[in-house]
Amino acid sequence: MSEDAQAANQPPLAINGQFIKDLSFEAPHVPEIFADMANGNGPAIGIDVDVKASQLHANMYEVDLLMKVEAKAGDKVAFLVELEFCGIVTLNVPEEHIQPMLFIEVPRHLFPFARAVIASTTRDAGFPPLMIAPIDFVDMFRQRMGEGEAQA
Questions:
Q1: Which of 68, 73, 101, 145 could form a disulfide with 48 if both were Cys (CB 3.0 to 4.6 A apart)?
Q2: Are residues 92 and 11 in contact, defined by beta-carbon separation less than 8 angstroms?
Q3: CB burial class (10 A; 0-12, 13-18, 19+) of residue 105?
């Protein structure tokens, strides 16, 4: 079988593995923050998301989904979670599709697992499990490309 025929039989995206690269949780005002929250001073949640990608070799890449969540009750930090959730992927797509695959499709596949890690972490720390709403990775990619064009 020729290389072209073998490439045609390969899936466009194969997730070879996924893992937690870094996970940090802080709750600096426990236990008094629970009383604050019980008195109706529920947490305001701020979420920052970023995606990074690097080529490992040939058509294999590491994609890092970085999530930072800060919950505040009034002016006090209830908790802070920082997660770097990664996937090792193989891409069998034309060159012009590599960036959208790395910054849209792969994070879309990784996100449910990262969300579950954050939900479990907050629940295990005594807070309600935080279920992060779906993220628009297409919009994030467009913003990234817009910033790149503005800098050029």
A1: 68
A2: yes
A3: buried
* H helices, E strands: number in the chain: 5, 4
What's the pLDDT tens digit per position in 86-100?
999 999 999 999 999
CATH of 11-151, one of 3.20.20.80, 3.30.70.100, 3.40.50.620, 3.10.420.10: 3.10.420.10
User: Which pLDDT value is given to residue 1?
Assistant: 41
User: Going by C-beta distance under 8 Å and a sequence separation of 6 or more, which residues neighbour residue 73?
Assistant: 29, 33, 36, 37, 41, 42, 43, 44
> Please, what sign has the CA dihedral across residues 86, 87, 92, 93?
negative
**Mean predicted confidence (pLDDT) in 64-90:** 96
Specify the pairing of strand 76-91 against strand 44-57.
unpaired
Integer Cα distance of 76 and 51 in angstroms: 28
